[in-house]
Amino acid sequence: MAQTPISVTLDQIFVLLRDWLVHFLPAALRPFAGVVLGVVAIAAVFPGLFALTTVFERKGLGRMQNRLGPNRVGPFGFFQPIADGIKSLTKEDIVPTNADAVVHFLAPLVLVVAVFMGFAVLPVGRNMVLVDMDAGLLFFFAMGASTELSIFMAGWSSRNKYSILGAMRAIAQMISYEVPLLLSSVTVVMIAGSLSLTKIVEAQNQYTGIFPHWYVFTPWGLASFLMFAIAATAETNRSPFDLPEGESELVSGYFTEYSGFKFALFFLGEYLGMFSISGLGATLFLGGWSAPLSFLGFVPSWIWFFAKVMTAIFIFIWMRGTLPRLRQDQLMNFAWKFVLPFSLLNLMVTALWRFMDGGWLRWVVCSAILLGAYLLMARTGMHRKHFGPRSYRYAE
Amino acid sequence: MSIVFYGIAALTVAGALATVLLKNTVHCALAVAVAFAGLALLFLSLDAQFVGFAQILVYVGAVAILVVFAILLTRGSETPEGGVFSRSWLAGLAVGAGVFAVLGWAVIESARALPLGTAAPVATVHDIGVALVGRYVLPLEIVALLLTAATIGAVIVALHEKERPR
Lengths: 396, 166
Known about the structure:
The complex is a heterodimer of chains A (396) and B (166). Chain A starts with 5 loop residues before the first helix and ends in an 11-residue tail after the last helix. Chain A is globular and about 60 Å long. Chain A is mostly helical and 396 residues long. In chain A, helix 3 runs parallel beside helix 12. With 166 residues, chain B is mainly α. Chain B is 73% helix and 0% strand. In chain B, helix 1 packs antiparallel against helix 2 and helix 2 runs antiparallel to helix 3. The radius of gyration of chain B is 21 Å and the shape is globular. Classes of the chains: A mainly alpha (396), B mainly alpha (166).
């Protein structure tokens, strides 16, 4: 028997571990037990990442705002999420008297369940996907769309004007940005010719010289990726699109009336949404679990996937520390007058790319169309705004 | 007919019944979302992945939200005082029974038209895509035209009316 190299063993270590654990069981139970182990792994890893991310976010934001951030619990404040967890578990769970108790109770559960479902089709490493579905991308978006309903349930059942305002804002925003999100993902489907996320990763796991065939390194791919990133930020209600939560205007929007562990569940749902949408972005445009340079293939594939996701999370945090919040009309104008037309144009460009034969000509043509359209739209859009020194109507 | 089918069917029927029997309109909208999800599960249990996920994406993700918006933007979500049954419920019952009878007849007839023991057709997402842009491209384009017209109509309705000098 040929000795498998250590890098392959490390790459497949979780698959091997699962198979080893499962082989203790009778053969009839093995497929079922394998799935259960996969679910347990997802349910353990991503909330664990969530706990880590909250610390990193608070410390990173603190750094950007010239303060320290949490530094009391444990070394450098890294045990803060444990303290937060205990706090939210022991806090009183308050349900407003006027609230619709059943819907109020169900809303956080629906949110967390729908968000967790999305992870089922994400390939987190070579051979590491819970369900390899033929229509994986469609499944992901179907689950993402059902979170909107849970947000409405939370906002409406609370019987609070801030909650309902936040919920309406959130739903309007999510519906508006779901269109470009889907359109920019469709370009990848057009080129890869499959809705299966594992096949999309396989298509990108090739190299010319040392450089990978990631879709982000093509003109249409870069445009799609940027539109996807904008839409994904809006879809997860992250700054600068955090109007639905807007602490200073809506006291955290649709989950104002939630306390204790239900509040923690909303928080968890929001961060899990960030992880899953970043994972999808990495899978569609950044080659999923494939290595960024061909000679880096010895590093286990799951490390690359999580490295890409955590980079995306860092950029989310960075943007939150940098950009001010948009206004509602700016948000809608941006979605319908810039992101959507540009995504539609990009769809055409992708079709052009698909049917022009390979060679430098299609690079020039596609890049020229996209750049020209961007300059035209951005210039006219900015020109119409009449930017100038700020004037105050009521102050001064 | 397995226990899974009966479970999903019970969920779907319960959601549909709750939709017509509950008093609060928003509760009805949420119940209809449950019925939609149940239908999607039925499609999935028949190995029709594309239809099942499209059902969730379109009906639970968009139609239910649209219904909810319509309720909140029009009459408000408060429970009406005079009960939820309209005075013409008898006529409504007759129309509902008629539609159900026609649909039921169509389903039973189509089942008889097929020879017994035919294997369920396997339709992958790829096959559906090829059929949509191949044989059924004209219906697809017509639907697309209709939807575009509807979108433009919605934009026109929502446009600010410009004040004309008289």
